[in-house]
């Protein structure tokens, strides 16, 4: 479709209609992030004139003719009207949102309004992510606040099926008749204090492995990491002396490619590797072989999208037992190697576990294995021009006077500065 802002020429623009049944089946709650990730990956391999330069998400079927062809002009009218609504030039709807007239809805919407601001339209069909702008962290925080306020605990399986505001309002409706507790009993700052208060015991069959002694595995992994550094990807590091000598802490690098963790592992000192652990995406460790590898390298496979709380608890568990957590705050590999937006998971864990954050900048790994492309075999050639540089910055703690989001932006600034200078 042509652009709606009077472009000089036409540009490719997409309207995406998600298959909600498939999303629920795959437990995908952050559709916006998934779509953006896929469009970035597809666009990176196409000529500029074939790239989709923008897109809208629609939950209504696209208008079609009787023969099934898209009515492109009708689609463009929808886009133009959506742009006017976003700019405040046109009312979102001639009809007021339909809500049950009861105290529960009123109280819940008051809590939601505090989190999403005055501009969002609190309609029953509003998508929590795409319409209200809540990312995965903010969804969990809002849900936890509502659970604390209503006394209604949402089961994990049910939580993964909630996409709209109306579904969330219904999910936290108390079973009794007293809803007076909803009126702001929980503060917006207590969600993660509640969620991270009770961690799994050391006897947990999965997390308990992080505490096991590995007298043979650790030296072997250390040796293999040095072989990787010497024969696979040439890697150098500066700032090792800034790593804390003792205690739990987080190592937070930018994320450039699949080889980031291996490169980092290949240059850290043995005393650090002996206490290191990861919380990795479960899809990379689904085969028996990769599950075995995960256990040996102290990686806890968790789906941080549909199971964000277990992922955060896994990180908190290791930190609570004096381990060192490697956490990539971007949450995904950069499409072009530059430093992207940082999520606030690291500051949340740092604040609640009293563990400092060590900022780390990685540069050169993107050229080794760009996202969406094959491994660059020239990286294996000695002095072939591919050189991964890792810079470690000064550890810092989250300040009491800053929000987790502000701390995440401060962390990103530290990493960005080192990345630019490396």
Polypeptide structure, described:
With 422 residues, the chain is α/β, with parallel strands linked by helices. It is 38% helix and 10% strand. The protein contains 16 helices and 9 strands. The strands form 2 sheets. The chain has a 7-stranded mixed beta sheet with strand order 3-9-8-4-7-5-6. Helix 12 links the parallel strand 5 and strand 6. Helix 13 packs across helix 14 (345-353). Residues 1-8 and 179-188 have low confidence and may be disordered.
Tell me the number of strands. Answer: 9
Largest sheet: 7 strands, mixed
Instruction: Provide the structure class.
Output: alpha/beta
Mean pLDDT: 86
**Spans of 5+ residues with little confidence (pLDDT < 50)?**
1-8, 179-188
The share of residues in helices is 25-40%
SSE order, one letter for each helix or strand: EHHEHHHHHHHEEHHEHEHEHEHEH
Beta fraction: 5-15%
Q: Helix tally?
A: 16
Euclidean distance between termini CA atoms? 42 Å
What is the topology, as strand order, of the major beta sheet? 3-9-8-4-7-5-6
User: Outline, from the CA principal axes?
Assistant: globular
Provide the gyration radius in Å: 24 Å
Annotate the secondary structure layout:
Elements: E1 13-16, H1 20-26, H2 31-44, E2 54-57, H3 72-86, H4 103-116, H5 136-150, H6 156-159, H7 165-171, H8 191-195, H9 217-231, E3 235-238, E4 249-253, H10 260-265, H11 270-273, E5 276-281, H12 288-296, E6 299-302, H13 308-320, E7 324-326, H14 345-353, E8 357-363, H15 365-368, E9 388-392, H16 404-421
Parallel strand pairs: 1-2, 3-9, 4-7, 4-8, 5-6, 5-7
Antiparallel strand pairs: 8-9
């Amino acid at each position: 479709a042509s652009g709606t802002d009077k472009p000089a020429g036409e540009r490719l623009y997409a309207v995406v209609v998600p298959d909600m049944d498939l999303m629920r089946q795959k437990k995908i709650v952050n559709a916006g992030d998934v779509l953006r990730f896929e469009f970035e990956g597809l666009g990176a391999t196409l000529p500029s004139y074939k790239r989709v330069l923008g897109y809208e998400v629609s939950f209504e079927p696209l208008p079609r003719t009787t023969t099934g062809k898209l009515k492109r002009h009708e689609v463009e009218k929808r886009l133009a009207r959506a742009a006017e609504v976003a700019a405040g030039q046109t009312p979102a709807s001639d009809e007021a949102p339909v809500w049950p007239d009861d105290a529960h809805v009123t109280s819940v919407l008051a809590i939601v309004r505090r989190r999403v601001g005055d501009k969002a339209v609190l309609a029953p069909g509003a998508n929590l992510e795409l319409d209200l702008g809540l990312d995965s962290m903010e969804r969990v925080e809002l849900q936890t606040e509502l659970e604390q306020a209503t006394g209604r605990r949402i089961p994990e399986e049910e939580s993964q099926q909630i996409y709209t505001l109306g579904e969330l309002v219904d999910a936290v409706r108390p079973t009794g008749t007293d809803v007076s507790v909803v009126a702001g009993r929980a503060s917006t700052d207590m969600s993660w204090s509640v969620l991270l208060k009770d961690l799994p015991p050391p006897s947990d069959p999965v997390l308990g492995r992080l505490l096991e002694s590995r007298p043979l595995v650790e030296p072997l992994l250390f040796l293999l990491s040095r072989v990787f550094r010497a024969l696979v990807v040439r890697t150098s590091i500066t700032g090792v002396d800034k790593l804390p000598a003792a205690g739990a802490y987080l190592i937070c690098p930018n994320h450039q490619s699949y080889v980031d963790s291996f490169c980092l592992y290949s240059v850290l000192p043995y005393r650090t590797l002996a206490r290191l652990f990861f919380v990795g995406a479960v899809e990379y460790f689904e085969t028996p072989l990769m599950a075995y590898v995960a256990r040996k390298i102290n990686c806890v496979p968790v789906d941080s999208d549909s199971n964000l709380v277990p992922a955060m608890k896994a990180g908190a568990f290791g930190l609570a037992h004096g381990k060192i957590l490697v956490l990539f705050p971007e949450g995904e590999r950069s499409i072009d190697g530059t430093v992207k937006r940082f999520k606030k998971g690291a500051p949340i864990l740092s604040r609640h576990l009293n563990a400092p954050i060590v900022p780390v900048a990685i540069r050169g790994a993107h050229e080794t294995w760009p996202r969406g492309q094959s491994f660059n075999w020239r990286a294996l050639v000695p002095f072939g021009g591919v050189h991964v540089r890792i810079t470690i910055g000064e550890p810092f703690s989250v300040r009491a006077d800053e929000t987790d989001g502000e701390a995440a932006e401060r962390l990103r600034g530290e990493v960005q500065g080192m990345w630019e200078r490396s």
